[in-house]
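Open question from group meeting: does this chain pack into something compact, or does most of it stay loose? Before anyone orders reagents, we agreed to write out a predicted structure and look at it together. Recording both the input and the output here so the notebook holds the full record.
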Amino acid sequence: MSLTSLAKRLAGLGRREEALAAIQEVVGTYRELAAARPDAFRYELEQSSRAAARLEHGLRPQRMPPLRETKE
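Structure tokens returned:
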């Protein structure tokens, strides 16, 4: 099972803190991968970032505009 799937299942069970920890790990991994190969991993980073934002704010999944990471 992927960490993303685990996060979704935990959230569905009401275990929000555990779900958030799992999805934050996913975001961190995709952030590293996207730094090395942006074209290959940018979409996954955006999707996992959206999922993390929904968990943090307690929103249900919905269509959201793409996130844009800022370059530092």
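Observations to bring back to the group:
The two ends are 33 Å apart (CA to CA).
The chain has a mean pLDDT of 84.
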